[in-house]
């Protein structure tokens, strides 16, 4: 279980950073008409988010999270800064032995 939690934590941070980069790329695309960054960052974030989903579901199954808790953690990778918060909550709840 420790390995699954570590993999989740790493991907939560990576996805969070790339989501912030994606927001910057979107601003550049629409405010400055510079769409090149979106063509690079968009697919990378999508690929990393897919990995985040798989690792989150793996951890959810191992820790027996509720469907609601699992869904909220899965959605955390789509809202800027939320994956960082979700990662902290998952670590706290796991340390306490409380399922999501």
What is the string of SSEs from the N terminus onward?
A: HHHH
Question: Mean pLDDT, rounded to whole units?
Answer: 94
- The tally of helices reads 4
Structural class estimated from helices and strands: mainly alpha
* Total strands: 0
Considering DSSP H and I runs of 4 or more, what fraction of the residues is helical? over 70%
Write down the Rg: 15 Å
State the separation between the terminal residues, measured CA to CA: 15 Å
Largest pleated sheet: none
Q: Spans with pLDDT under 50 lasting ≥5 residues?
A: none
Shape: elongated
Fraction in beta strands: under 5%
Which terms would index this structure?
mainly alpha, 4 helices, 82% helix, Membrane protein, DUF3817_TM, transmembrane
What does this structure look like?
- By secondary structure, this protein is an all-alpha fold.
- Helix content is 82%, strand content 0%.
- The longest helix has 30 residues.
- The radius of gyration is 15 Å and the shape is elongated.
- The model has no long low-confidence stretch (mean pLDDT 94).
- This is Membrane protein.
- Its main location: membrane.
- InterPro entries: DUF3817_TM (IPR023845).
- Keywords: Cell membrane, Membrane, Transmembrane, Transmembrane helix.
- It is a multi-pass membrane protein.
Per-chain topology:
Layout: H1 2-31, H2 36-63, H3 67-75, H4 82-96
Helix pairs in contact: 1-2, 1-4, 2-3
Summarize the structure.
By secondary structure, this protein is an all-alpha fold. The protein is built from 4 helices and no strands. It holds the Pfam family DUF3817.
